Each structure stands twice: as C-alpha cells, then as structure tokens.
Amino acid sequence: MGGPNINQDETFFNKKSFLTVSGQLHLEAVANGLGNVYTFGPTFRAENSKSRLHLSEFYMIEAEIAFLEEIKPLLQFVEKLIKKVTNNLVKKNLSDIQICQDLNKDEFTWLEKDFLTITYEDSLKIIEQNAMQFKHPVNTHKGLKKEHEIFLVKHLGNVPVFIIDWPKAEKPFYMKEKQDDNSKVLAFDLLAPGIGEIIGGSLREDNLTKLKEKLPNQADLDWYLDVRKYGGVPTGGFGLGFERYLQAILKIENIKDTIPFPRWPHNCSM
C-alpha cells in the first residue's frame, strides 16, 4: 500500500494486514452492545477456483442475533428472510427479473414450501447411496463438494435444504459445540437448487475456556476473547453470499454474470 513516495518496505498500518474475509467477529462484539446487527459489503476469498460458482471478490450480507441459544430460531429467521425478500422481488419487480431471465411466477413455487432440514450424517448417507453419480467420492473429513450439494437439493425435491449438526473439525473455531455431542457444532449450511450453499451460519461459542483452548497463540484475537471474558450474551448469525443468492433466484448459470466487474483467480483486469 502507498503512493510513489512511500517506502514499500513499510506497511500502511505498521503491521501485516489482509483483505476482509468476513465482518462476523466484529458483529459479535457489536451485538453485545446493540442487539441484532448486520453488515453488507465486499468480501474476499483466496479459493483457487474458476468455477461458475466462485468469485474472488463478492458481496456478503452478515447478521448477528443477540440472546440466541438454540439453532432452530436461527433457521426459522433465515427461511423467513429468504422468502420475504424473494416474494417482494417477485411481486414488485417481476418485469426487472424478466430482463435477466425469461422467468414467470411459476418458477417461484418453492417459496410456498417449507425448507427441509437434514443432518450432515444423513446427507452423507444419501450421497454414499448414489456414489456412482459423482466425479468426487465423498470424504467425511473434507465436507461436501458442490456436485454433492446440488444433487442433495434435487434429490430432496428441489427446495432449499438446511444441513445441520456439522462435525467440529469441518467448521471454524467460533462455532458452538452441541451439548450432547461435542464432536459436532450447532452450525448450518443452506443449499439452494442448482447452486448449492448460499448461506452458512451457527451459534457462537460463548464459553471462554473452550475458546482459549481453540486459540492458544492468537494474540490478534485477544479482543475477541475479551467479549466473553467481561460478560457477553449468547449470539448466533449467518453470512449470505449476495451474488449466489441472485444466481439462485434468477437461475443464472455463471456467477460472473451477476456482477459488473467480476474478479477471479488470475483475473483482475478492472
């Protein structure tokens, strides 16, 4: 960072800094003072993928809900949000939608159906029973591939599907463990037809001792631990990839067509 007169051996912030991958940890801190909060802004990923479902820079809607102690209310909130926003688009802006794709109201009948919920273990069983259909074999230690996610939604009736009860090893440190099985966390992914995962979320670990065990040498996150140390409230939240949401509801084949200046690995021309 810097102009022509800046010594490039120096850094702008006097420390090693990185592009934003999420505002979630900061939202957790703010939620302890303000209650329910959200943010919407650019996010960056270093996934080396040029697939039709990946961007290196995208926009993400993240929300954090205070005093949340169970996963079910979080799933209900997400389902209501998706249905409310999409119904408003269909009712008020169908002509705009049709500029993107030749869609009619019949394409949105899934809005009238309940979203399904299955466990991660049950999703693996379905995939293993249909293993011959996939390029990639299921690996219980590496999560689900995109082809698995898309198949699951189609197999279960082409309605959005919540996958819950993920293995702790598959998810980040901040997710709350299940009380009856500490090998799993209270997390979810929401899969959409033709796209796969568009939202990920969880309850947040509010046990300071457990967080310290997971973050033994993370001085940069002392402030995050302090949120629990000095008395916090239980929270939960999620992140929604905006371009993937558009891709899902508008049935756009390639995510690069949802944003004016897409950026992906080895391409940042504008």
TrEMBL record:
One of its GO terms (molecular function) is ATP binding. One of its GO terms (biological process) is translation. Residues 37-260 form the Aminoacyl-transfer RNA synthetases class-II family profile domain. Signal peptide: none annotated. InterPro entries: Aa-tRNA-synt_II, aa-tRNA-synth_II, aa-tRNA-synth_II/BPL/LPL, Asp/Asn-tRNA-synth_IIb. Keywords: Aminoacyl-tRNA synthetase, ATP-binding, Ligase, Nucleotide-binding, Protein biosynthesis. Coiled coil: none annotated. It comes from the Eukaryota. This is Aminoacyl-transfer RNA synthetases class-II family profile domain-containing protein. It comes from Cryptolaemus montrouzieri.
